[in-house]
Write a structure and sequence with these properties.
This protein is mostly helical. It folds into two domains: about 70 residues, Tetracycline Repressor, domain 2; about 120 residues, Tetracycline Repressor, domain 2 (Orthogonal Bundle). Helices cover about 70% and strands about 0% of the residues. It has nine helices and no strands. Helix 7 packs across helix 8. About 35% of the residues are buried. It comes from Nonomuraea marmarensis. InterPro entries: DNA-bd_HTH_TetR-type_CS, Homeodomain-like_sf, HTH-type_TetR-like_transc_reg, HTH_TetR, Tet_transcr_reg_TetR-rel_C_sf, TetR_C. Keywords: DNA-binding, Transcription, Transcription regulation. This is TetR/AcrR family transcriptional regulator.
């Protein structure tokens, strides 16, 4: 998983529909950062974005609909995986990108608000899951490349490797509320890479 743009307001330029969507999504993110999911209201988003309430209700339907579209846009803005030429370099780049995202005042607050929403709203949970599955799938490619180069065993599950990199960071962010530092990110890479090289992520029956 890597760091998308800090703001959904960088939606690609286009006609009036695209401009309305950009304004609404940026405002949705502003409201999430300032008030959290439970403080998010359709009327406030419409007023702050300068868009008619009827338009917002017709297009997004609910606050959960706003969150779903916001997460979709943030996923679309995310950069492709890094290719440093080594699995160690690629996994470090992934870990530091995750660290940068969750440490950013705006983007980190957005993720925390949506994670909180996902505990009680199925649409928010679906949006969050879709976002992370897309990013995991993208970064799993670096593991596949490492297998081809002979750096990791055949049959290594790339998605599980990427999950293992970011899991300690999100645990500290969301569960224990401890500082998430570069040292924590680096340790996660070291431990995950050692386990991957030892075959801990090889899928049973894959022939690895």
């Amino acid at each position: 998983m890597d760091q998308p743009s800090r703001s959904a307001g960088t939606v690609r330029p286009g006609g009036r529909t695209a401009r309305v969507r950009a304004a609404v999504l940026e405002t949705t993110q502003d409201e999430l950062v300032e008030h959290g999911f439970h403080g998010l209201t359709m009327d406030q988003v419409a007023a702050r974005a300068g868009v008619g309430k009827t338009t917002v209700y017709r297009r997004w339907g609910s606050t959960a609909g706003l969150v779903v579209d916001l997460m979709t846009e943030l996923a679309n803005q995310s950069s492709p995986h890094t290719d440093t030429g080594t699995i160690e370099g690629d996994l470090r780049a992934n870990a530091l990108s995750v660290l940068g995202a969750i440490s950013d005042g705006r983007l980190g607050a957005t993720f925390q608000a949506v994670i909180a929403a996902a505990t009680c709203d199925e649409q928010a949970a679906h949006a969050l899951r879709s976002f992370y599955l897309r990013r995991i799938e993208e970064w799993a490619n670096v593991v596949d490349l490492a297998v081809k180069r002979g750096e990791l065993p055949e049959g290594t599950d790339g998605a599980e490797v990427i999950r293992a990199i970011s899991a300690p960071l999100y645990y500290r962010l969301v569960v224990t509320r401890e500082p998430v530092t570069r040292e924590v990110a680096e340790r996660s890479v070291t431990r995950t890479l050692a386990a991957a090289r030892a075959g801990a992520f090889v899928v049973p029956g894959s022939g690895g």
